Amino acid sequence: MTKKKVAGSRHAIGVAALLALCAMGASAQIVIGQTAGMTGSVAASVNETIGGAQLVIDAANAQGGIHGEKIEVIRMDDAFDVKRAGDNARVLIEDKKVLALFMSRGTPHSQAIIPYLDKNEVALIGPSTGAMVLHKPLQKHVFNVRATYQREAEKAVQHLLTIGLTRIAVVHVTDSFGADALQGAMNGFTKGKAQPIATVPADREKPDYKTIVPAIMKADAQAVVWIGSGVAVVDGIKALRAAGSAAQVVTLSNNASSGFIKQLGDASRGVIVTQVFPSERSMGQPMVKEALTLARAKGQGELSPAALEGFASAKVLVEALRRAGPKPTRAKVLAALESLKGYDLGGGLEVSYSPQDHSGIDFADLAIISEGRFKR
């Protein structure tokens, strides 16, 4: 063989080796899946949670990834449609072969995902819902981060009773989320030895404000606990104000986003939103400080409650991937999550799981919206 041929062969081998290494690098990424309503009625808060989560993921990738592998999130929009959420989960798990699912949005939507988790032994980390059905009975493959809606709704009712508002109406969406949160509200009434002055159902797809608002007005409600999502609650509050009601309105943390406030506009005055993480303005809180530092490095001036929820959930995701070790598998991620004990998100907000408990943290607070901003 001539020297030219030998050199050519070596060059070909070198190129082949380089291509092989590139292929290995491309396949070495940690691929996570997410289905959520990136368009539709809850898009504002969903996209804020995604922004908060991406701060953590980008920071991890900038430091070389997890055990040398970058995190990639494949996101599919389900437009807050239950069937699409289930279909997307099947595609992500069975076709895209994702390592885990992350931060689904909605109670019935997350329930639609569970059969695919169970069939394929895949974890869902940080669903953006506080549904009790994801806590009890134990869902083997669901790892919650945030507190429950029942805890929030109970605290909301207790708060209203404590400040002397006794004529309280409850509006609840007619789906599994609404039924779940309604139970929490009723727990609050029971503990306060009180009863709602009116309990008004609202269709999830097409709430009839011409029926809902008169029921509240007829009851002469001093306050309304409004259990629903995004645009439906915004439109309901606006209709209530247009009818002349000055009733205090409380809604749950699924609506704790800057987008929700902007949609309310002038109707935001006096609205209360429950929260499941410390105030995004509490700069002395370590997790908030960390999140804001990363946000400002990207040119973002402030956080929203929804962004902070995404940030917290992503911290749990990244920690689970670290503990799963090099070349993680679905089984290794599950094992890492179930052995996660006392993981501090910052400032004593600890997340712990076990084979018997996937509840996450239990923190609930209240924030008052005034002039379009969250304030304590």
Q: How many helix segments?
A: 12
Return residue spans where pLDDT drops below 50 for at least 5 consecutive residues: 1-27, 366-376
Beta content? 15-25%
Topology order in helix (H) and strand (E) letters: HEHEHEHEEHEHEHEHEHEHHHEEEE
Topology:
Blueprint: H1 3-27, E1 30-36, H2 43-62, E2 71-77, H3 82-95, E3 100-102, H4 107-120, E4 124-125, E5 142-143, H5 149-162, E6 168-173, H6 176-191, E7 198-202, H7 209-218, E8 223-227, H8 230-242, E9 248-251, H9 258-264, E10 271-275, H10 286-297, H11 305-324, H12 330-338, E11 343-344, E12 350-351, E13 365-370, E14 373-375
Parallel strand pairs: 1-2, 1-3, 3-4, 4-5, 6-7, 6-8, 8-9, 9-10
Antiparallel strand pairs: 10-13, 11-12, 13-14
Helix pairs in contact: 2-11, 3-4, 5-6, 7-8, 11-12
What do you see in this structure?
With 376 residues, the chain is an alpha/beta fold. Helices cover 46% and strands 16% of the residues. The chain is globular and about 60 Å long.
Keywords:
16% strand, 12 helices, five-stranded parallel sheet, disordered C terminus, 376 residues, 14 strands
